Amino acid sequence: MKSRSERFAPACSAGLQSCLRRRACRPKVSAGRALLPLLLVLALCVGCRGAGSPILVLISFDGWRWDYIDRAKVPNLQTLAARGVRAEGLIPSFPSNTFPSHYTLVTGLYPEHHGIVSNSMVDPVIGERFSMSADTANDPRWWGGEPLWATAIRQGRRAASMFWPGSEAPIGGVRPTYWRPFDDAVPNAERVRQVLEWLALPADERPSFITVYFSDVDSAGHDFGPESTEVLDAAGRLDQALGDLIAGIDTLQLLETTSVIVVSDHGMSQLDEDRIILLDDYLDLSTVDVIDWTPTLGLALRSGSVDAVYQSLKGKHPALAVYKREDTPWHLHYSRHPRIPPIVGLADEGWRITSRERLASERAAGRKPGGAHGYDPAYKSMHGLFVAAGPRLRRGAVLPAFESVNVYELMCWLLGLEPARNDGDRDATREFLVP
Ligand code: AMP
Ligand code: ZN
Ligand code: ZN
């Protein structure tokens, strides 16, 4: 007996767009084939909906380093770049980690202004430790600024989130109109299907702004390193999801009014068994609270003075720079928030900071050093991805790397929204737009 997807293949070649047809006819079961029933229903729905206001879909490929687009087989991303704009890299805010960086993308604020200063942090007033788990990530007290979904809703639009850091917390009392609780076990095909279902809503219920998040490339980068074939395979899988999403938007006849932006939150650097900084070689660990280990070290005090701890680390290891909070380098924009620990350490690219005890348990568990991020965004290895296409964007332009803090302003412009106060500059992306 034929499988469900095999039975759908002939119908597809008769009616849907050629790009979709090509994918659905491949022997391997893909997200596209899984989505075919939905796409057929969507195709029938097209006639009953009106065009409406501009739409923006913001896609995150977590941990996609700037160079993967040219190293992996990613025809859908290449096609998107050819009909839109591509930057040679997207420079993340510091620290180049998932939560701070994603929240910078949707607020246009540096972490010292939006308050998500790390994936792991302590707030002196709240008196709790923040982690990426639901308990604290859904608590609005941690999230400052105004994310784009709130900007859109405040100005009378609808917004939806198929995952994004911050999307589950009622920030300023506002959550996306439609959203789903984070669960990385949700298959990529289901994430695409959900976005298309939201886009298929009647014009007066349809979101103008949608986020969708994929973690495969980051996970492969951590486990196998940025030069691995596993990373390139993961990139290929995400490219398939991108192709299915764009085919679905096309089927809905929304491509002409929809901008698609594909970004990543940071790049990835290769770790090495020999590049290890052992903190307990310099410091009695019982005197400090290690809020963040590596590659950005965050230390608070249990006893003693900031100056004593600072002196015991400063200049002691050639691959570790140490600062008091108020003295961190200007380009990091990382001084002005009480959640930034009083002592901040930065490991050089490819180095990691740990203790003898932690290293022993890692080795006992057989963990091999793969990839890491979180380093100074000035390192090229930390630069991410930016590709965008849409009615207001130039076609086939390749532009220099730019800072992710500017993406919020660009998105507001594409949606015709008045931006909230932010650290970005509209001029940074003016070249991306049709004159
Ligand atoms: P990082 O440690 O910076 O590499 O974080 C990457 C991880 O963040 C991914 O593997 C996801 O599981 C997790 N993550 C991404 N988005 C969310 C979210 N909205 N809520 C909770 N965890 C998330
Ligand atoms: Zn990330
Ligand atoms: Zn990561």
Q: What features would you highlight for this structure?
A:
435 residues; Alkaline Phosphatase, subunit A; Gyrase A, domain 2; eight-stranded mixed beta sheet; four-stranded antiparallel beta sheet; 15 helices; disordered N terminus; binds adenosine monophosphate; binds zinc ion
Can you characterise this structure?
With 435 residues, the protein is of the alpha/beta class. The protein folds into 2 domains: 4-269 and 379-432, Alkaline Phosphatase, subunit A, CATH 3.40.720.10; 276-369, 2-Layer Sandwich (Gyrase A, domain 2), CATH 3.30.1360.180. It has helices at residues 4-15, 18-24, 31-45, 68-71, 75-82, 98-107, 111-114, 134-137, 148-154, 188-199, 216-224, 229-251, 306-313, 356-364, 407-415, and strands at residues 55-61, 85-87, 90-91, 121-122, 129-130, 159-162, 178-179, 209-214, 258-263, 269-270, 276-278, 288-292, 296-301, 320-324, 343-347, 352-354, 371-372, 386-389, 397-399, 402-403. It has an 8-stranded mixed sheet, with helices on both faces. A 4-stranded antiparallel sheet has the order 12-13-15-14, covered by helices on one side. Strand 4 and strand 5 form a beta hairpin. Helix 1 (4-15) packs antiparallel against helix 2, helix 3 (31-45) packs parallel to helix 10 and helix 10 (188-199) runs parallel beside helix 12 (229-251). The model is unreliable at 1-33 and 39-50 (pLDDT under 50). One zinc ion is lined by residues 62-63, 98, 218, 265-266.
